[in-house]
Write a structure and sequence with these properties.
The chain has four helices and twelve strands; from the N terminus they run E-H-E-E-H-E-H-E-E-E-E-E-H-E-E-E. By secondary structure, the protein is mainly beta. The strands form three sheets. It has a six-stranded mixed β-sheet. The protein has a four-stranded antiparallel β-sheet with strand order 6-5-10-11. The chain starts with 9 loop residues before the first strand and ends in a 10-residue tail after the last strand.
């Protein structure tokens, strides 16, 4: 909430329980201690710098962005497959249901449900359309993982992207599940990237990137985007910007709460 002691682009925290973790990035937010640690911390009166002055993230002036990214081993609990009550049309949608391999799960949290045009859903084979992963190379220089099925030599071993999960069911044309514009996915704020590779190599993963239109990739939209066949001279939601999110490597401590 904007307060009397806040300068332009800053916010004063008047209720700590209303601080969004996505606001506490880099070194711009002293209240991050209240979000990222288990120590009691008074958030009242703390400041954070608004990355989007003049508008809230996800409104029609800008599309969705990443809030966080965390790397875990592929293990139980798996995706959302264990909760069929919430939607049989897109479950099971975890990595075990979609793929016959996978060592690592890179889970992203977003500011809103992602869509390639504001109407159609994201599909498990869309990694190359929207994402790339940054890792540390053998020579210490950055390496981009931007293709599915390609084995990349990085510091500590090799890594290979399998695909996306935590979206919808695996493609099954006999059952009427197709990776097309009618694909049904859960449209929630989580998407997983499934990776095969060495644990030592995985520890060198540094960032998850959405290059967006500026990077020659497709952009993400909130619901209400242009759709697959937009009308000319009609204003729709704006595409999401390029985004580079640091990855929290949680291979030793999964940093997961009980269900």
């Amino acid at each position: 909430m904007q307060g009397p002691d806040a300068a332009d682009g800053e916010q004063v925290v008047e209720r700590a329980d209303r601080v969004e973790p996505g606001a506490c990035r880099d070194d711009t937010c002293r209240c991050a201690q209240a979000v990222l640690t288990q120590e009691p911390f008074g958030g009242y009166g703390q400041l954070w710098v608004d990355r989007h002055p003049g508008g809230l993230v996800g409104l029609d002036d800008e599309g969705p962005v990443l809030v966080g990214a965390k790397l875990n081993h592929v293990e139980e609990p798996a995706g959302e497959a264990g909760v069929p009550f919430f939607g049989g049309a897109y479950l099971p949608n975890d990595e075990h249901a979609l793929y016959d391999e996978g060592d690592l799960r890179l889970r992203m949290l977003t500011t809103g449900g992602f869509s390639e045009d504001g109407v159609t859903g994201v599909k498990p084979d869309d990694f190359e359309t929207f994402f790339r992963i940054h890792a540390t190379g053998v020579d210490g220089e950055p390496v981009l993982l931007d293709e599915v099925g390609t084995e990349y030599e990085v510091q500590g071993g090799t890594l290979r992207v399998v695909g996306l999960s935590d979206l919808g069911q695996v493609e099954d044309r006999d059952a009427g599940v197709h990776y097309d514009d009618c694909y049904v996915e859960d449209r929630v704020n989580y998407i997983d990237v499934i990776i095969v590779g060495d644990e030592a190599a995985a520890r060198g993963i540094t960032h998850l990137e959405i290059p967006a239109l500026e990077g020659g990739y497709s952009a993400f939209y909130n619901p209400g985007g242009p759709g697959p066949e937009p009308f000319p001279e009609v204003t729709y939601n704006a595409p999401g910007p390029p985004d580079l999110e640091p990855v929290v490597v949680a291979l030793d401590d999964p940093m997961r709460v009980d269900r």
